[in-house]
Write a structure and sequence with these properties.
heterotrimer, A alpha/beta, B mainly alpha, C mainly alpha, A: alpha/beta, Rossmann fold, eight-stranded mixed β-sheet, 24 helices, 24 strands, globular, B: mainly alpha, MetI-like fold, three-stranded antiparallel β-sheet, two-stranded antiparallel sheet, 17 helices, 5 strands
Chain lengths: ~675, ~475, ~325
């Protein structure tokens, strides 16, 4: 096409040794048109970041571009000298990265870091540069730029830092902005702000955006054109509407199908079998064939060729052979519904009852380290979980949700409140009494890489809890039980003699689950168990958790920030903001008719898959305040679009919306007399 | 009659511990993997051969005994000499007993200083007298010496090469048998450097060492290859004897300090609170005293003690050994603090890691968490520190001995060699051989240790590995 | 900030008391004052009277820690421990066992020590940073490889050989500078040159390698990629971004040794015959003068603690992320 201003053809990038290179990017071609957003979608390790770094020629030391052409402004970037390339970087095209926390130089002020780019590309210095920096900070909607210009990165929040990154990127007035997972490290409300900012800037400046992401929601929100990457190759390219209305490649379809949603609640999720292949090997046929449900003989024998149909290109044998592609739509997997509240359960005493839970960390200062204040990580949390149910605890980072989990388990001793578990008051148990009860409540962590001791065998890891909790067992009996547990979570029994690093992230998460299951707990606290995993693996883990709940009647406290996971797995939900729960109720109630302004904003910020849906994003101002110095009155009032006078004065009481749905907000407080002197 | 010095006991204890560790590590993949990485490094494996060579000499020099004197006529009882010698002394007896009067240069046939000699006709003349042992087999050293050195050396080198050839064949045959491969293919892989362990560089280094040993041994029978010192002692012998001293300082010091550093570091990091406060106070106090001064003070004290209790020791060498041990002890006291601080920091980080939290959630006891979860995950730090410290300690010994707060002046050590040679710097022609010998022996040991520890650190510290 | 410094100084007290107690125990519990007197008097068979006279004249005749005979505070102050150790807190070093005023000697001998230590440190840092940056700039090339190999070789040589080699080459062979000695004023220069050169050269191996590691660690960080993505040149990335960040550990590593420069270098000073604190200490050690050794131990600890404090303060100056509380 003539309006393409960057054309990548047959780009190949290798990493690692010459003898056994990792073919991170293996002959990909695409083009980006002026002013459009081109999204490269793929799971971790598929080579999408390496593609971006290849365009910028910023590969790590072990990386090298083997072949291909990157035509940009009628030059082949790969043939430019390093000095010429520097003019392109930051000038013609520019890049922002996933981790705003580490991507800014900690010892230079943000003003210096932005003006540096101005100096290189526009030759601006002194007051001109300063004015320009202020303009840029203003353009990326940083409040009070005159003050911020002298601040250091650590004084800014994550969202602010990413805005500064964007400001740096804009400084050279680029035609193309490469954004590598720009919002993955950010909270959903901040993500909404940043995505919105990027869209606006794109419209104002007419620059193209090359967006790299794993998040279908972000793609739906942002992209004009989409390319799906799998194992170093692009497997499908299409316009947004075409792609979302009918994804063609079996892999693309699987990605959609494995997304958890409320609609899929009562069934198991689709999963992609097997693993992403190693990019060190050579491929005979289609790279996806071993995992594909529709694989034919030819798929294993010959690599597929591009099939172009209108605004869509697919790299799949199904299409080139003219198969009837409609048969890709499989019937949904049915399974027994998880079921709704039954009368008996409602009456029974909850398994876990948390009242006014507090975790305050002292802040010390002064000559004799007096305690001058407290970080109120958890500040009066009430919740209850019944047998065999799942409560989702939802909130943004820093709201204290992980601390709630750990303090329920007494891994962090609470400073106040009560945790009643199965008739026992955990906060008052002695060390040894607590140790004996620990088999009843277990935890699964977010990061599958740090949750297992790298120097222990899988068998020993799973057996560790058994040894402590049922000391009488013989070694043989224990080994048998370990193997049974591993098989239960879908790991081969032979794995007992292997080390954690030999397993993938999803498999490790399964082993973690086996370790928790081994002591037969009644409650498992799942602390973001799937947020470090790819969508397809996430589906496997969620399915497993569902099955286990059905089989053993385990209760879950599911700590997460991911609304689609919540809508799929949870029975009840509690929304947490700055150490307190602001709204709780059944998932259907809260997600369908959120009452608290924060819940409403949170839900509206989640990108939706349906590109046609016109949703109104409620924009929150600013960032989450520090828990060491929470605002007076309602903690949410400084960011609340509906804040009233009373919100600044007093923390709201709990008001029932219905039998199972409560909200802490002055909007809903009824028949409460106004305090003297306050107009409502 | 076998005689055990304190340091001998500790050395063999250490050897035993290393063997146990090797047996333990063989079965554990996470321990074997980094070692395999070390094995792939040619430089590291070459250095290892050099280190093993030194250690072998050191170990031979650590088995002491009192030689039996000729049986007494009266009662047939075997009497033992007062002097304590080591197996190594016994092996190199010729080096030890062939003493000259004073200085002589390497390969010299004449003494360094002139002496008044009475000529056969009764006149007296000042001249350089012939050495008693060095080149004494030659009638006219001026003309014969060079040829003799070259031929002896070449002959010895050929012998060495033959022995090396036999050794290589044995190694290759053993490897072939172990891997069930033909000898030819083993040889091919080895020469191409494709084996998992770099046998090629190991065998080459071994070859150099074997040939050098043969040449040195054969020449030593006729010459003082590194000269003699002030009292006529063979410098080559001194340098070889110093190996044990260097190794003892380099290893026993860490052996002594490790239990403290590991135990206290882990406890401070894991329990925090007042335990941490006490331990932090302890190591801050100790590390605030300049190390050299603490060592100086301690050695001074020991010297006074030894002077006042001289009669408690049966021999000079026993005294010297105690001083050596004490030096290791005090060096250990000054060097455990940094490792302790490092381990404390690591433990503080580790105790918040998910798998420790998971273990706590399972109800695992503190002691088990410390030994099963934390200790194995800081072991690589301990190992790296031990190896890195080794060369630093060997170097420190020389400096301390120079300041006269090191090993006993009667003990053979590179520091003492340098110290005594330094006094002769001003002489003309310069007496350089003691310095030279100490330099060569120390340098090759420290260089080998440094190269090896570099490879070890790269293999064990994943953070550094990523940068490559 | 002020509160922080005051608190740190208060924390220093127990540490200094600990240091004193330790040296005290080391000196007087392992060997009684009688033993010391005997070895000072040099004769095995000295009379009890001679020992008593020696002890009295050197103040070792009092009880060790607690004096039951004295009155009031005297019970604690009229003791060897108080007289010999706690007085040091007022920097009252007393007299050496040979009778000289230690405080005066320290004041005199401090300057030659500084005259060698400061130039060695400054030149050494500059040289090491230059080499470190150079090697980091050429990372992954043969220059890097051979640079590191050279460093390892250099640091495998004992510092004694650097001194001996330097003396031999520069003084004995080329007669450029005197072998040893010291002078005041401008004349000091020719005496200082050799020790400084030797000091710098002997530090190159370890210094350069350590700086290279620091630089490479920084180069691997994300913000460097951002800087490159801006289109900055490699030199600018190195000097403005990498060096600025690597300076933090580098500078603080230097600050901690700054106060200890006063103490001088034992070996260099004694080899080159410089009348500094280092050679003073060595003399004290070799003469077995406990008073001097004890004073130097105390001084060293005080300077070390000051160094730690300065390190913390320097962090706040160079690293915007650190604030003292």
């Amino acid at each position: 096409m003539s309006d393409a201003f960057i054309t990548v053809s047959d780009l190949s990038t290798h990493l690692g040794s010459d003898t056994r290179p990792i073919r991170a990017v293996d002959g990909i071609s695409f083009e980006i048109k002026k002013g459009e957003t081109f999204a490269l979608l793929g799971e971790s390790g598929c080579g999408k970041s390496m593609t971006a770094l290849s365009l910028m020629r910023l590969l790590p030391v072990s990386g090298r571009i083997m072949s291909g052409e990157v035509r940009f402004r009628s030059q082949d970037l790969l043939k430019l000298s390093e000095a010429e390339m520097r003019g392109v970087r930051g000038g013609g095209m520019t890049m922002i990265f996933q981790e705003p926390m580490t991507s800014l130089n900690p010892v230079l002020t943000i003003g210096e870091q932005i003006s540096e780019a101005l100096r290189v590309h526009l030759g601006e210095t002194g007051t001109t540069a300063r004015e320009h920096v202020l303009d840029l900070l203003d353009a990326v909607r940083i409040p009070d730029p005159g003050k911020r210009i002298h601040e250091y990165p650590h004084q800014l929040s994550g969202g602010m830092k990413q805005r500064v990154m964007i400001a740096i990127a804009l400084a050279g007035q680029p035609d193309l902005l490469i954004a590598d997972e720009p919002t993955t490290a950010l909270d959903v409300t901040i993500q909404a702000q940043v995505l919105d900012l990027m869209q606006q800037l794109q419209q104002q400046r007419g620059m193209a955006i090359f967006l790299i992401t794993h998040d279908l929601g972000v793609v739906a929100e942002m992209a004009d054109h989409i390319a799906v990457m799998y194992a170093g190759q692009i497997v499908e390219q299409a316009e947004r509407e075409t792609f979302f209305s009918n994804p063609s490649h079996p892999y693309s379809r699987k990605l959609f199908e494995s997304l958890p949603t409320m609609a899929k609640r009562d069934q198991a999720l689709y999963v992609i079998k097997g693993f992403v292949p190693s990019l060190q090997g050579r491929f005979e046929g289609c790279r996806f064939a071993p995992r594909c449900d529709h694989a034919m003989t030819v798929c294993h024998e010959r690599p597929p060729t591009w099939h172009v149909a209108g605004r869509r290109q697919v790299l799949c044998h199904l299409y080139t052979r003219g198969e009837d592609v409609t048969r890709l739509n499989e019937p949904p997997i049915t399974s027994t519904p998880v079921g709704c509240f039954s009368q008996t359960e409602r009456e029974s005493e909850p398994l876990l009852q948390v009242r006014a839970l507090q975790v305050h960390f002292p802040i010390e200062a002064g000559l004799f380290k007096r305690t001058v204040g407290h970080v109120r990580a958890v500040d009066g949390v009430d919740m209850a979980i019944r047998n065999g149910r799942t409560l989702a605890l939802v909130g943004e980072s820093g709201c204290g949700k992980t601390t709630v989990g750990k303090s329920i388990l007494q891994l962090i001793r609470p400073t106040g409140g009560s945790v009643r578990f199965d008739g026992a008051e955990l906060t008052r148990l002695s060390h040894s009494e607590l140790r004996r009860r620990r088999s009843d409540f277990q935890i699964i962590f977010q990061d599958p890489y740090s949750s297992m001791n790298p120097r222990m065998l899988v068998g020993d890891i799973v057996a560790e809890g058994m040894k402590v909790q049922s000391a009488g067992d013989t070694a043989d009996k224990r080994r048998e039980r370990v193997e049974r547990q591993l098989q239960r979570v879908g790991i081969s029994a032979r794995s007992v003699a292997r080390y954690p690093h030999e397993f993938s992230g999803g498999q490790r998460q399964r082993i973690s689950i086996a370790r928790a299951l081994a002591v037969e707990p009644k409650l498992i606290i799942c602390d973001e168990p799937t947020s470090a995993l790819d969508v397809s693996v996430q589906a496997q883990i969620l399915n497993l958790l569902q099955e286990l709940q059905k089989e053993f009647g385990i209760s879950y406290l599911f700590i997460t920030h991911n609304m689609s996971v919540v809508s799929y797995i949870a029975d009840e939900i509690a929304i947490m903001y700055l150490g307190r729960i602001v709204e709780r109720g059944t998932v259907r109630d809260v997600l369908r008719s959120p009452q608290h302004p924060y819940t409403q904003a949170l839900l509206s910020a989640v990108p939706t898959l349906d590109p046609e849906a016109q949703r109104e994003v409620i924009r929150l101002q600013g960032d989450i305040p520090s828990p060491s110095n929470p605002p007076t009155g309602c903690y949410f009032h400084p960011r609340c679009p509906k804040s009233m006078d009373i919100c600044r004065q007093r923390y709201p009481r709990r008001s029932p919306v219905n039998e199972h749905h409560y909200v802490d907000c002055h909007l809903y407080t009824v028949d409460e007399p106004n305090p003297v002197g306050i107009k409502s | 009659m076998l005689f055990l010095f304190w340091t001998d006991v500790l050395i063999f204890l250490l050897v035993g511990m290393v063997l146990i560790f090797v047996l333990y590590a063989r079965r554990r993949e996470h321990l074997r993997a980094p070692w395999r990485e070390v094995g792939r490094s040619g430089v590291a494996m070459g250095s290892l051969v050099v280190l093993v060579f030194y250690v072998a000499i050191g170990l031979l020099d650590s088995i002491h005994f009192r030689p039996a004197l000729s049986p007494n006529e009266d009662n047939g009882q075997v009497k033992y000499a007062n002097e304590i010698v080591s197996v190594f002394d016994w092996l190199v007896t010729p080096l030890k007993i062939r003493e000259e009067k004073t200085y002589s240069a390497p390969f010299a046939a004449f003494l360094y200083t002139k002496e008044t000699v009475e000529l056969p006709d009764g006149r007296q003349r000042r001249q350089f007298p012939r050495l008693k042992y060095g080149a004494s087999h030659l009638t006219d050293p001026e003309t014969e010496k060079t040829t003799d050195i070259v031929t002896t050396g070449m002959l010895a080198a050929v012998k060495g090469l033959l022995v090396w050839g036999v050794l290589c064949t044995v190694v290759i045959a053993a490897l072939g048998k172990w891997k069930h491969q033909a000898l030819r293919s083993v040889l091919g892989q080895m020469r191409a450097g494709q084996t998992t362990v770099r046998w090629r560089s190991m065998l080459y280094t071994l070859g150099v060492l074997v040939v050098l040993s043969f040449v040195a041994a054969d020449l030593s029978m006729k010459y003082h290859i590194l000269g003699t010192d002030k009292v006529g002692e063979n410098v080559f012998y001194q340098a070889l004897k110093s190996i044990r001293t260097g190794l003892v300082i380099g290893t026993l010091t860490t052996l002594i300090m490790l239990p403290f550093a590991v135990l206290l570091g882990l406890m401070a990091g894991y329990f925090r609170g007042w335990v941490d406060d006490v331990i932090q106070y302890l190591y801050t106090t100790l590390s605030s005293i300049p190390g050299v001064l603490l060592i100086a003070a301690a050695v001074l004290i020991l010297q006074v003690y030894l002077d006042n209790h001289a009669d408690e020791f049966s021999s000079v060498s026993e005294r010297a050994d105690l001083r050596l041990l004490f030096l290791c002890l005090i060096l250990g006291v000054t060097s455990w603090t940094s490792l302790c601080r490092y381990l404390r920091g690591e433990t503080l980080k580790l105790r918040e890691v998910d798998y420790i939290q998971a273990a706590t959630a399972l109800g695992v006891r503190h002691f088990t968490i410390l030994t099963r979860h934390i200790l194995p995950n800081v072991m690589h730090i301990v190992l790296i520190t031990v190896v890195l410290d080794f060369s630093a300690l060997v170097l420190a010994e020389a400096v301390l001995s120079y300041v006269q707060i090191g090993v006993d002046p009667t003990m053979n050590s590179w520091g003492n060699m340098i110290n005594s040679a330094r006094l002769e710097m001003a002489r003309e022609p310069i007496v350089w051989w003691s310095l030279f010998s100490a330099f060569i022996f120390m340098f090759s040991l420290v260089l080998a240790a440094n190269l090896f520890s570099d490879a070890l650190r790269d293999a064990f510290d994943p953070r550094l590995r990523q940068q490559r | 900030m002020i509160a922080y410094i005051v608190r740190r100084l208060l924390y220093a007290m127990p540490i200094l008391i600990g240091v004193n107690l330790l040296t005290f125990v080391l000196f007087f519990v392992v060997n009684t004052p009688d033993d010391i007197a005997r070895s000072q008097l040099g004769d095995r068979r000295v009379t009890v009277q001679a020992i008593d006279t020696w002890k009295r004249s050197h103040g070792y005749h009092k009880p060790m820690i607690y004096n039951g005979n004295a009155q009031g505070f005297g019970k604690l102050t009229d003791t060897v421990f108080f007289q010999k150790s706690l007085r040091l807190f007022a920097f009252d070093f007393g007299r050496s066992d040979s009778g000289r005023d230690i405080g005066y000697d320290i004041g005199q001998r401090m300057w030659p020590s500084l005259a060698i230590a400061v130039p060695t440190l400054v030149v050494g840092i500059l040289v090491n940073i230059t080499f470190g940056l150079l090697i980091a700039f050429f990372r992954g090339t043969y220059i890097d490889f051979w640079g590191v190999v050279t460093c390892v070789i250099l640091l495998s040589v004992s510092s004694l050989f650097y001194i001996i080699g330097g003396q031999y080459l520069l003084s004995k062979l080329f007669h450029l500078v005197p072998i040893s000695g010291y002078d005041t004023g401008v004349n000091a220069f020719k005496f200082l040159l050799l020790p400084v050169v030797v000091g710098v050269v002997s530090g190159i191996g370890s210094g350069t390698r350590w700086y290279r590691t620091l630089f490479l660690e920084e180069i691997g960080k994300d913000y460097v990629r951002t800087a490159r993505a801006k289109g900055l040149s490699e030199q600018r990335v190195l000097f403005r971004h990498v060096l600025r960040n690597a300076l933090i550990p580098l500078l603080t590593g230097i600050v901690v040794v700054l106060p200890l420069l006063f103490m001088g270098s034992l070996i260099v000073e004694s080899f080159f015959g410089v009348p500094g604190l280092g050679s003073y200490t060595i003399d004290g050690i070799q003469r077995q003068d406990f008073a001097i050794v004890r004073s130097m131990v105390f001084l060293g600890s005080v300077l070390y603690i000051i160094g730690l404090l300065l390190t913390d303060i320097s962090y706040t100056l160079v690293d915007p992320r650190v604030r003292l509380q």
